[in-house]
C-alpha cells in the first residue's frame, strides 16, 4: 500500500496533470516579456502604489510558503479594529467614499490568505483612484477589468472575479506607453 499510495499513485497523477493541464500543474506562472517569472495567477500579491489595483487583505502577507488566515468571529475585537483601520485607509486612498460603498472583499481575508482575485465590484470601486494615479482613462480601465474578469467556475459556481495580478500587468503595460 505504501508503494501504491506513496509512489505509484502520486507519480501517475503528476504525469496525467502534466499532460492534461500543464500550465496549472506548473503553478500557472506568469512571465514578463523577457521570460522572467513575475508571479503566479494562483497567488495573491501586494501592490503598494496608488496607480495599481489592490487585492484582498492577507493575514500572512501573501507568503505562499504557508497558507492560512485568522479565523476570527465577526465579534472579535482584533478583527473589528483591523476592519475599521482598513475602512479609514480605503476612504483616504479612494476619495473619502461612503463606508457602505466599500466592497466587503477589500475588507476581509480569504480562507487561505492567498486569494489572487477580487470581485468585479471591488475592481470597479478602485477605478477612479487608479485612473487618476496611472493616467489611464476610466473607460480603458473598465475595458481592462472586463478583459481580466474570469467567469463562474463551470458556469454555475461562485461569482465572476478579477485576477489582480493580470489586471495590474495590463495597467503597467499601458503606463509604459
From TrEMBL:
It is found in: Cell membrane. GO terms for molecular function: ATP binding; P-type potassium transmembrane transporter activity. Keywords: ATP-binding, Cell membrane, Ion transport, Membrane, Nucleotide-binding, Potassium, Potassium transport, Transmembrane, Transmembrane helix, Transport. It comes from the Bacteria. It is a single-pass membrane protein. The keyword Cell membrane applies. One of its GO terms (cellular component) is plasma membrane. The keyword Disulfide bond does not apply. HAMAP family: KdpC. The system is composed of three essential subunits: KdpA, KdpB and KdpC. Belongs to the KdpC family. Part of the high-affinity ATP-driven potassium transport (or Kdp) system, which catalyzes the hydrolysis of ATP coupled with the electrogenic transport of potassium into the cytoplasm. This subunit acts as a catalytic chaperone that increases the ATP-binding affinity of the ATP-hydrolyzing subunit KdpB by the formation of a transient KdpB/KdpC/ATP ternary complex. This is Potassium-transporting ATPase KdpC subunit. It comes from Fictibacillus macauensis ZFHKF-1. The gene is kdpC.
